[in-house]
Design a protein that fits this description.
Elements: E1 2-5, H1 11-20, E2 36-43, E3 48-59, E4 64-71, H2 80-92, E5 94-100, H3 104-109, E6 113-118, E7 121-127
Parallel strand pairs: 4-5
Antiparallel strand pairs: 1-2, 2-3, 3-4, 5-7, 6-7
Length: 132
């Protein structure tokens, strides 16, 4: 599996992944200038790339905010979301995210410092190690 910056040709697949996850990332096409990462693999004799997950960032003054991260349903639990977050953190050095109770364990496992916003919603921050 690899993670790379999404290009204009990836817009439809990114939108499909995020729509299937019922996420609303806003104007994905406008963010394809470096703010969208995709995870994929290559299969078949012609090494056709399959896009398995996508992450959309919103640049901030310090780091970026994870607007959405989604993985194709049958590929969940394989570390794809983790790889996307880790790559975004390498690039941005600091990430923030807002999320529901259901995905809190995902962000906790990635080392986010988490605080409640209101019932069922949380805010998290992760900062890359200085030694990296």
């Amino acid at each position: 599996m690899h993670v790379r910056i999404a290009g204009p040709d990836d817009a439809l697949e990114v939108r499909r992944i995020l729509d299937a996850a019922m996420l609303e990332p806003g104007d994905v096409e406008a963010r394809l200038d470096g703010d969208v990462l995709i995870a994929g693999d290559r299969r078949g004799a012609d090494s056709t790339e399959r896009i398995l997950g996508a992450l959309v960032c919103e640049p901030r003054e310090r780091g970026a905010h994870v607007a959405s991260v989604g993985v194709r349903r049958r590929h969940r639990g394989q570390g794809i979301g983790r790889r996307l977050i880790e790559r975004a953190l390498e690039r941005e050095r600091r990430l923030t995210a807002r999320f529901d109770d259901g995905v809190r364990p995902f962000y906790e496992a990635l080392g986010f410092t988490i605080e409640p916003i209101d019932e069922g919603r949380h805010r998290g921050v992760a900062v890359a190690d200085q030694g990296e």
